């Protein structure tokens, strides 16, 4: 089910606003194939009607309403002396309320084969009875929706789409968009993720839902959505489908990672392995690994499929390297970069490139975005490493040390002339609370965090430079903003 | 260039004795060489047998695709077995090797299989893992994958 609002402005006291076209457009955008559209007026002086859009007939309707509920006969509702708590701008509109009583506030329209079922002369009207005002109709679509993959269907070129319903309007306060869905594409991702999880078997869906609901920055799907707007073929639904698949894939890898790292908590909640056991964690990871690859394949863009498959392979290979390197903890800069480019940056790069590929962006743009994602991914991981030493991150400080996770601040601290020997000695032994605290203290006292921060910012600068020579259809500031905020963070 | 190599996790083979035939070649040269990067140890320890068992199932596909499709199926079967899916969870390093098998298979399918085959394979893994998560038995992986080939060919 999809919910949203239709918003419009009226220009007369009484006005028959034909919203048929708007409703048809929302049906087309939603991909509803067979089902129902429910409309509900959110005002006591706006009614709904289905009738013929013939100007003289509309004047007849208006006259009928005026005869049945004349405006000048005196209504008790308009006797403000007898009413309590009325606002200073309370309108004299008893007649409008009474006229609305003669209409309906609700309508259900049928949809078949993706089209609104209406007779030849039927139109859908929102009937303004106390205008002019800004008005709003609630709209819900339910039934069978087409898969989100067909090319060229719906949402093309629309930057702001589907939104969950907001609070009902108060006193005719003006909404903004005339006849448009409101909200952001990030909400479309959340809706698509929720939709995907809803159809999955509960033994796998429940743990994944808990993980996804616990948060996450959704950076990768955001990159997919943004870059999918760059080329000439922007389709928000296909982009949302790909973005959701990328997020599912990312979370599937996290489920296995947490088992490998023996992590007990992620995003403040028990990991799937800790809560449900290793066997369940492996199954959940496998299920969403497979599901994500299927969703990507179903999009039907071979370049996107290959790009994502390459990234997945890089992630798995790097994870093996990561574990192998723990024998030489904390490792060195080159090993660190090699692992991070696979474990983290590969999916960032693939997200950027695949969104652009989906939109038929030129090859030079795709490659520039791929490099942008690669650099951003490495910078992001460096910033993540620094968060481990931030008391304000909300996470336990020193977790990476305790788990012997590859971390650039630790590498730099171990190389440091003054604190290096002690850091190396401590890391070589068993790591209890005391040792972890001491290593944290040494890293913080050294130049390591400053060096990592500078290196991360340098990578972001390089990433931003990749965007300078390509046409990005006005999205450069947003991408740059994401890149900067990825490293300027404490959590 | 990848400097690191990880040997195949041998622990799984203690519970699964591959029927290593002297007729089976070592790592096949050419078409599959790249695809066995990091997995060479597995080839020698049973992946080759599994690979051969799928060759017949891919006979209806383009000849040049057949080895890669058979290898993809074999990697999925071996990968799932390495992970311990539906049984006892594998140790971390073995799980990661299983993950790499699945990822490699996914890439092989992405580069060589039709969309229908890719989808059928993914659905097979979804089915097996959903059953494992629910603690229910599943049809044998090989049966599912062979069916995926035939259904989508």
List keywords for this structure.
heterodimer; A: 491 residues; alpha+beta; Jelly Rolls; Farnesyl Diphosphate Synthase; five-stranded antiparallel β-sheet; three-stranded antiparallel β-sheet; 53% helix; 12% strand; elongated; B: 153 residues; mainly alpha; 5 helices; disordered N terminus
N-to-C SSE series of chain A? EEHEEHHEEEEHHHHEEHHHHHHHHHHH
Task: Work out the largest interface and the residue count of each chain.
Answer: A-B, 45 and 45 residues
End-to-end C-alpha gap of chain B: 36 Å
What is the helix fraction of residues of chain A, given as a range? 40-55%
Per DSSP, the total helix count of chain B is 5
Number of domains of chain B: 1
Largest sheet, strands/sense/barrel of chain A = 5 strands, antiparallel
**Rg of chain B from C-alpha positions?**
15 Å
Kindly state the percentage of residues in helix of chain B: 55-70%
Structural class of chain B: mainly alpha
Global mean pLDDT of chain B: 83
- End-to-end C-alpha gap of chain A: 34 Å
Q: How many strand elements of chain A? A: 10
- Element-by-element helix/strand order of chain B: HHHHH
The backbone outline of chain B, from C-alpha atoms, is globular
Report the portion of residues of chain B in β strands. Answer: under 5%
CATH architecture of the largest domain in chain A: Orthogonal Bundle
CATH homologous superfamily (4th level) name of the largest domain in chain A = Farnesyl Diphosphate Synthase
Lateral arrangement of strands in the main beta sheet of chain A: 1-8-3-5-6
Q: What quaternary form is this?
A: heterodimer
- Strand proportion of chain A, as a percent range, falls in 5-15%
Structure description:
The complex is a heterodimer of chains A (491) and B (153). Helix content of chain A is 53%, strand content 12%. Chain A is built from 18 helices and ten strands. Chain A has a five-stranded antiparallel sheet with strand order 1-8-3-5-6, with helices on one face. In chain A, helix 14 (408-415) crosses helix 15. Chain B is globular and about 40 Å long. Chain B has five helices and no strands. Chain B is 57% helix and 0% strand. At the A-B interface, helix 7, helix 9 and helix 10 of A face helix 3 and helix 4 of B.
